[in-house]
Amino acid sequence: MAIRLSPPARHDGSLGITDEEFDHDRAGVLTRLRAEGDIDFGPAVLDPAHIGDIRGSLGTISLRDRAPRRTWWRRLLTFAIIMGPGIIVMTGDNDAGGVQTYTEAGQHYGNSMMWVLAALFVVLFAAQEMVTRLGAVTGVGHARLIRERFGLFWNIFSVGDLFVLNFLTLLTEFIGVNFALAYFGVSKTISIPIAAVMLFTFAATGNFRRWERFMLTFVAGSLVFIPCFFLARPQIGPIARGFVPGVQGGVTGTAILVIVAIVGTTVAPWQLFFQQSNILDKRISPRWLQYERADTLFGCIITTVAAGGMIAFAAFALNRTRAYGPSANYADSGWFNDAIRATLGSTAGTLAAIMLLVAAVLGAGAVSLSTSYAFGDSFGQKHSLHRTVRTAPVFYFAYGGQIVMASLVVLLASSAVLGTLTQWVQVLAGILLPSAILFLVLLCNDKTILGPWVNKTWQNVVDFTIIGVLIVLSMILVVTTLFTSVNAKALTEVLFAASAAAVLVIGAPVMIRSKRRRIAAGGSADRLADVRQLDRSTWRMPPLDQLPKPVMSPLRMAGLLLLRGYLIASVLLITIKIFSNFIH
User: Fold this and answer.
1) Cβ(134)–Cβ(455) under 8 Å?
2) Which of 51, 167, 332, 488 is a good FRET partner for 183, with 20 to 30 A between their CA atoms?
3) Would you tell me the crossing angle of helices 96-109 and 289-318 to the nearest 10 degrees?
4) Is the pLDDT of residue 37 over 80?
5) How far apart are the two ends of the chain, measured CA to CA in Å?
6) What is the mean pLDDT of residues 499-528?
7) Residue 86 has pLDDT above 60, yes or no
8) Largest Cα–Cα distance of the chain, in whole Å?
9) Cβ contact 158:145 at 8 Å
């Protein structure tokens, strides 16, 4: 039964006006609504469908609800209604590619990569917390912000990367559906079309709540990893030792590839675009930001624990067993399901296949919607699950088109190609991640769009450290892939040491000079002095057409171009490697 925490809003989500009236005087309409009912929405909101009651899967919060939550029960009810964007993006992150990557890591390296997940928990929450602020405070999607603040050139690069990577990721989701249902004897000519129709049907009803309930059902289904974990008869000792940095068998080029694949599947670029737009679509404003942060943190915990459970499941079931030990190469998720059945029995094999199916459908729903959101943002089209196919045809055409194309590719491709593709897609995601996070950090330091919500200094230190580590990992991967004779362990030590030295030699002086310039210009040593006095409860980003043009310094431009050039070269080299593997 749905819960309503306050009386319904007068406009009931539609504002009582047409889209044309809203577009003609967007700022005026929102100013009037805020004056009349103290509505917590800024003037930059582009689509009237993004304003209205929060219609969560478990209840409704009125547009005009300003009542304080003084009891824990009221807070829990509010959290239950707000919950959605964070937990869906996180559990959707443990998709079909994630299942294969985590279980392959467990089969080959035991529990020795648990420490990677512990480190990625910090990366995951740091990135998605920034997204929650951008979504709630600006009222604009991620792709649109990149276009407005960095220009069409960088928008094309960022969104172009996203479209290609998301399509490849969507392929891996349908590959997962294929392998999961093939375990039960269902042909892909049946399983793939049914999955495609189901995904489109639940999204295209024009009912956000119905879509969210569909996704949260699969979120609940993802907990199937729990019985899988216990069927493998886990031991606490080996799991605990896995949180000490190291790799079973030593650091090699192959191990680095798996680590980068884990990074790419745990923190993927599509998550940034999806959650920011989904927050808008659910109509979450800064009034409810603390609940959305809790939703994100809750999702981070679940997805990290689930990833660790998958690694342990494969480690205890297959690592060093006679039937499926290190001598048996991990082929694909279908191979894994059969290996689990042969090692632990038919019940475990069935649960492993269900785990893969749930992950694939959940991932496909989130990834495809991420592309459609970004498409609508980039081309100024209406893009909301509150809209029907009739009122948002371009949005749903982009959504359905990618599903149809991905389905056809999987139906026509051979099983051997499909199994190999999955891991490499995660690797490509890991390589492109530094660029996506860099734009995210730059946006979160833009006082024009976030005002008092901008990053604090300690957040920037954490974020740029994350970017640096990701770049170094991608460099190690590229070098060890191209030059297989290179000592991966020595290369890792040298590059991380050189990076730390570069931060001390270059980073610290840059920060000191920046502070001196502010003081010399008559400002404060505190870079946030001009926004600290602003009231977070009322500050919102102005309309996009009223924002001053951002100033791109030569140093920042050079840095962005250098990073972009390096990442493009890395992706090309890795792509060549992928095709060479297919040929041989």
Assistant:
1) no
2) 167
3) 40
4) no
5) 57
6) 68
7) yes
8) 73
9) no
> Over the chain, what is the mean pLDDT?
85
CA distance 415 to 214: 29
**Buried b / exposed e along 123-158 (16+ C-beta atoms within 10 A):** bbbbbbbbbbbbbbbbbbbbbbbbbbbbeeebbebb
Helix 85-93 to helix 269-281 angle, to the nearest 10 degrees?
A: 160
How many Cβ atoms are within 10 Å of 207's Cβ, its own excluded? 15
Helices (H), 38-185: 72-82, 85-93, 96-109, 114-138, 142-150, 152-182
What distance in Å separates the CA atoms of residue 569 and residue 60, rounded to the nearest whole number?
48
**What is residue 7's DSSP assignment?**
P
Q: How many CB atoms lie within 10 A of CB 489?
A: 15
Mean pLDDT of 105-111: 92
Do the beta carbons of residue 104 and residue 258 sit within 8 Å?
yes
Look at residue 411 and tell me whether its pLDDT is greater than 50: yes
Judge: domain 81-443+542-583, CATH 1.10.10. Answer: no
Q: pLDDT value at position 218?
A: 95
CATH 1.20.1740 region(s) of the chain?
81-443+542-583
Q: Give the lowest-confidence range in 175-184, 370-379, 472-481.
A: 472-481
